[in-house]
From TrEMBL:
Keywords: Coiled coil, Membrane, Transducer, Transmembrane, Transmembrane helix. It comes from Candidatus Acetatifactor stercoripullorum. GO terms for biological process: signal transduction. CDD domains: HAMP. Residues 419-655 form the Methyl-accepting transducer domain. PANTHER family: LYSOZYME-LIKE PROTEIN-RELATED, METHYL-ACCEPTING CHEMOTAXIS PROTEIN MCPB. This is Methyl-accepting chemotaxis protein. One of its GO terms (cellular component) is membrane. The chain crosses the membrane at residues 37-59, 327-347. Residues 348-400 form the HAMP domain. Residues 1-20 are annotated as: Disordered. Residues 672-699 form a coiled coil.
Amino acid sequence: MKANSGKKPDNQKRKNNQKQKRDKIAVGFFRGIQFKLIASFFVPVICIVALGVSSYQMAANAVFSSYQSSIEQTMQMVEDYLNLVLDTEQASYRSYLQDDELKRYFLGNMTDAVVYKGRTTTEFKRAVTGDDLLANVFFISQSEEPIATVDLTGTEAYEAFVATPQGELAQANATKYLLFGNQSDADGALGVDSSKYSMRLVKKMVDSNGFMIIDFAHNILQDSLGALNVGEGTYVGLVTCDGGEFLMENGQVIEQEEKVFSGQDFYQNAVSALSAGGDATAGLSQVSYNGSDYHFFYRALGDREAVIAVLVPDSQILAQAADIRRLTVIISVAAVIIALALGSVLAKSFGGTIRKIVKCLKKISDGDLTVEIQSRRKDEFRLLTEGISGMASHMKKLLTNVKEVSGELTTAAAEVSESSEMFMDTSKNIKDSIQEIEKGVQLLDKDSADCLNQMDGLSSKITSVTDSAAQILKMTDAAEACIAQGMNATGELTSSAVSTTRITGEVIGAVDELEQKTRSIGQIVEVINEIASQTNLLSLNASIEAARAGASGRGFAVVAEEIRKLADQSLTAAGEIAKIIQEMIQNTGKVSEIAKEAESVVATQSDAVNATIDSFREIERQVSGLLEALQLINDSVKDMDSDRSATLGSVESISSVSAQTASSSMEVYGAADKQLEAVTRLEDASEQMQKRALQLSDTLKQFKL
C-alpha cells in the first residue's frame, strides 16, 4: 500500500503530460471534414469526367469508323478506276505487240521502214491526242529507230532506259506488264518531263530486243488520288514496284527527295502482309511518322505490284470529336469549382459546431462534468450536442456511484490480498507434503521392485531344489534296487558256503578212508580205481559247487581239479602205486589238514556273509528313512513354491499399488502446483486490484461533480 502511494506523483505527472499532448493535437487537412466533403463532392465530378471521356471515346470511335469506311470505299473505287484505265490501254496497245509489220520493222526486215514508221507515228499521235488518259507512247529497240509520239532518233533512248532500274526489271520480267512511277533517269533520253505524266506501263517485246512504254496523263492520278484527301496533313500516294511514289499532300501533288512511304517500316510490313498470300488485298495500322500519330491505310492495285497508300493524322480524324472533349473539360472544371465552394462552405459551417463540441468534450475529459453544450442548429449536430450533454449527466451520476464503491473496493482488495497470502502459504505447505509423500512412494516402489527381483531369484532356487529332490528320489529308488540285488547275491553265497562245508566234510572223510585203504596193499588197485571214480564224481560236484560259490569257492575248485588230476593219474599210474603209496599216506595227511583248514575258512566265510546280510538290511532301513525324509522335503518344497507364487502376486500387487500411488501423487502434486500458480496469480491480481483501486480513487478526485 505504501509503494502504491509513493507512485501518486508519477501518475499525476504522466496524466498532466497526456493532457498537454491532447490539447496540442490538431487534425490535419487531409483528415479534416473539409477535405472529406470536397472529396465526396469530387465523386460525382469524377463520374461526370468519366462520362465525358467515355462519350468522347465513343464519338472518336464512331468518327474513326466513319473515316475508315469512307477511305476504304474510296480506295476501292480508286483501285477499280486505275485498273480499268490500265486494262483498257493495255488491251489497246497489246495488238501492236502482236502486229506482224511492227515485228518486221524492229527485226529490220521491212523495205519501206521509213514509210511504216511515219504512218505508225502519226497513228500513235492521233490516238494520244484523242485520249485524255495518255501522255506518250514509245516503241524502242536496240537496232531500229524508235516509233513514238515524241520525235526520237537513234538508239540512245533504248540504251538509256535499259541502264535504269526500271529497264532491268522489264528485262527480267519479259512476260509481265510492269507499272512504274514518274521518276526515271531515262526521261531525258526519251524527251519527256516527269511532271507531264503520272505513271508508266512497260512491256518487253518478245520477238525483238525492245520495249513498249506507255506514259499516262498526269491528271489521272491527281484526280483519282485527290479523292482520298480527308484534310490537312493527309498524305496520299501510289507506290510502284520500283519504289517510285506519286505523292500528294493536302490534295496537291508534291515533289520531294525524301520518300514518305518507300523505305518506312510500316510500309514494308504492309508489303509483306500483301505478299504473304491469301485473300488480303488491303489493311490498316496505327503508325508514327515525323513524331506524329497517323492511321496508315493501304490497298494493292490488282496484281501490278503497286500499292495505294494513305496517311491520315489522328488529329484530323478526331477533330470532329473535339467539341465533345471541350464540353467535357468545361463541365468538369465547373463541377470542380462548385465542389470546392460547397465543400468549403459546409466544412466551415460544420467546423464551428464541431470545434464547440470538441471544446466542451475537452473539459469533460479533464474531469469537468458540469458543462452544458447548446447549439442553434436544427440538424443532426443538435442531436449530437444533446446526446453529449446527456452523456455528461449520466457520467456524473455514474462517477458519483463509482466514488462510493471505490472505498469499499480498496478495503476488499486489502482483505483479498491477506487471504491470498494465507492461501499461498497453505498451498506451499501442501505442495511440500505431497513432495515428501511422492519421495516415500518412490522409495516404496523401489523396495517393491527389489523384493520382486529377490522373489524371482528365490523362485528359481526353489525350482532348482525341487528338481534336485526329484533326482535324489530317483537315485534312492535305484540304490534300494541295488541293495535288493546284493541281498539276493549274499543269499546265494550262503547256500554255496553250506555246500562247500558239506563237501569239505566229505573230503575229510574220503581222505580218512583213503588213508585206511592205502594201508591195504592187496586192494591197492581196486581201491585206487574206486577212489579215482569217486574222486572224479566228487571233483565234478566240487567244481559245480565252487562255480556256484563264485570267488569264495575258487580255492575249493582248485583242490577239486587237483583231485581229478590225481584220480586220472591213479588210473594211469596203477603200476606205480606201490612206489608212491608212502607218499600218498603223507599227502593224505596234508590233505586232511588242508580240508580242515578249508572247513574253518568256510565257517568264517559264512559268518562274514551273515554280517554282510545284516549290513544290507541296515542300509535298506536307512534308505527307507531317507526316502521318507526326501518325500517330506519334496512336499515342503511344493508348499514353498505355492507360497512363493502367492507372495510374488502380493509383491506385484504392492508394486502396482505403489505405482498407482506415485501416479496419483504426481497428479496431486501437479494439481497443487497449478493451485499454487493460481494462488500466485490471485495474489498478483489482488495487488493489481489494490493498485487499480488506488488509481481509481486518484482518478475520481480529478472529476468535478
